[in-house]
Amino acid sequence: LRFDEKVRVVVFKSEVKGVFCAGADLKERAKMDDVEVGHFVKRLRNLMDEIAALPIPTIAAIDGYALGGGLELALACDLRVAASSAKMGLIETTRGLLPGAGGTQRLPRCVGVGLAKELIFTGRQIDGQQAFSMGLVNHTVPQNEEGDAAYQRALTLAKEILPQAPIAVKMGKLAINRGIEVDIASGMAIEGMCYAQNIPTRDRQEGMAAFREKRPPRFIGK
Question: Measured between alpha carbons, how far is 203 from 128 in angstroms, rounded to an integer?
Answer without folding.
Answer: 37
